[in-house]
């Protein structure tokens, strides 16, 4: 194990209730396994308390109450552990799942809510009008962005580019997957990108680009964003090719070349995420996207997403 890998293994641990390991696909990520008994006990408490997805949607404090039910099972330190991993520049991400204890998608939403409220506070998702969104990718699609277009690569980007609020982290959970080949989440840690320095040191890296959302996002706002900015003395990134509006050919070429450079980087990870598992990444120094699916008329995949901030 070299020094970089040792640094990345610093959150590895095993308790009676859970185990934290370096992710089998990437030494940048951790994989956390909560014991089946703890998950079952958590779901039982939730159900005894008559908590439902609708109740969580309507009553914000209930989301923190169910987060406390998870802590009751796995220990008070668990929330701090998750936050420390997502803050940690060497890593910044983890995967975690329900270990097959349930296949009920309402329970998936409840579990994902407990995790997101241990991380901080999810932002309002304008697309769904809730604190989370579920969206499916199928054979046909009539939307106005690449989010639901199955057979195209969804290029690497960060979330929250066109909203005026911090988006510190992103959670994606696999809810349903049928007849899906391909479509993996693609992830790139900013510090693994070979040409990072070249784009950070380019004069246009400190240009404020205008971002506008397409209609389906229900965000009627324009916002100016730096592509690279200082984040704890290291670069942070804000970029999505679909919603940025350059004003010159030179700017357009900078954005195109940046996107191409990200896409072709050898460190891009194609994450295998089973149904019932979720991935959380720091949205300041991880980029995410999606591989194309193979054509299938019965393709059906649904993800849940939450984006949010750390509490101060
Ligand atoms: Fe995204």
TrEMBL record:
InterPro entries: GlaH, TauD-like_sf. Its EC number is 1.14.11.64. Keywords: Dioxygenase, Iron, Metal-binding, Oxidoreductase. Pfam families: CsiD (PF08943). It is an enzyme of class 1 (oxidoreductase). The keyword Zinc-finger does not apply. GO terms for molecular function: glutarate dioxygenase activity; iron ion binding; oxidoreductase activity, acting on paired donors, with incorporation or reduction of molecular oxygen, with 2-oxoglutarate as one donor, and the other dehydrogenated. This is Glutarate dioxygenase GlaH. It comes from Peribacillus castrilensis. The lineage of its organism: Bacteria, Bacillati, Bacillota, Bacilli, Bacillales.
């Amino acid at each position: 194990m070299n020094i970089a890998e040792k640094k990345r293994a610093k959150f590895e641990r095993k308790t009676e209730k859970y185990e934290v390991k370096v992710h089998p696909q990437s030494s940048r990520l951790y994989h956390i396994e909560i014991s089946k008994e703890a998950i079952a006990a958590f779901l039982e408490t939730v159900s005894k308390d008559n908590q439902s997805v609708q109740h969580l949607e309507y009553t914000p404090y209930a989301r923190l109450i169910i987060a406390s039910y998870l802590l009751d099972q796995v220990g008070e330190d668990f929330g701090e552990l998750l936050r420390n991993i997502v803050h940690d520049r060497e890593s910044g991400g983890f995967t975690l799942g329900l270990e097959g204890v349930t296949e009920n998608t309402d329970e998936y939403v409840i579990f994902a809510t407990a995790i997101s409220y241990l991380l901080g506070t999810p932002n309002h998702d304008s697309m769904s009008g809730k604190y989370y969104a579920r969206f499916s990718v199928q054979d046909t699609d009539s939307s106005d962005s690449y989010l639901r277009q199955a057979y195209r690569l969804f290029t690497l980007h960060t979330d929250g580019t066109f909203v005026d609020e911090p988006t510190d982290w992103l959670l994606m959970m696999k809810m349903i997957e049928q007849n899906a080949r391909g479509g993996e989440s693609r992830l790139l840690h900013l510090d693994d990108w070979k040409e990072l320095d070249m784009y950070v040191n380019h004069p246009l890296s400190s240009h404020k680009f205008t971002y506008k959302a397409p209609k389906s996002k229900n965000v009627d706002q324009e916002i100016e964003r730096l592509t690279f900015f200082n984040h704890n003395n290291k670069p942070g990134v804000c970029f999505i090719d679909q919603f940025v509006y350059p004003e010159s050919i030179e700017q357009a070429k900078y954005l195109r070349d940046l996107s191409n450079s990200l896409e072709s980087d050898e460190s891009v990870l194609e994450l295998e995420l089973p149904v019932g598992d979720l991935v959380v990444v720091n949205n300041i120094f991880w980029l995410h996207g999606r591989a194309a699916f193979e054509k299938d008329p019965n393709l059906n995949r649904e993800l849940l997403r939450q984006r949010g901030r750390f509490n101060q």
